[in-house]
Amino acid sequence: MCIAQPKTITLTKEKLKDKIMGGWAGQTFGVTFGGPYEFRFQGTFIGDYQPLIWHNGLLKDYMINNAGLYDDLYMNLTFVDVFEKYGLDAPVDSFANAHAGYMLWHANQAGRYNILHGIKAPQSGYWKNNPHSDCIDYQIESDFAGLMSPGMPNTASSISNKKGHIMNYGDGWYGGVYVGAMYTIAFTSSNINFILTGALKTIPA
Question: What is the pTM assigned to this prediction?
Answer without folding.
Answer: 0.89
